[in-house]
Fold this sequence. Notes:
- It contains 3 helices and 3 strands; from the N terminus they run E-H-E-H-E-H.
- It has 84 residues and is α+β, with helices and mostly antiparallel strands.
Amino acid sequence: MPHLFSYGTLQLPSVQLSSFNRLLTGTADTLPNFTLGTLEITDPQVLAISNQQHHPIAIPSPGDSITGMVFELTEQELQQADRY
């Protein structure tokens, strides 16, 4: 099964239920050498699901790190995450 590191809205129960029809279980993890920035979301469907106009994005930054969760997904769920 594929694994997906999430540091943003895919950690929200509402997004998981909307995207995968289930709550994901995961393990805390860290992404080294990146920091968080923001991206303004204009897609109405994504805005409706996440209820957030600004989503976090990973920006390369030596020495920094981002905390998040690693989720185990099916291949189909990974594709659904990509579409989201």
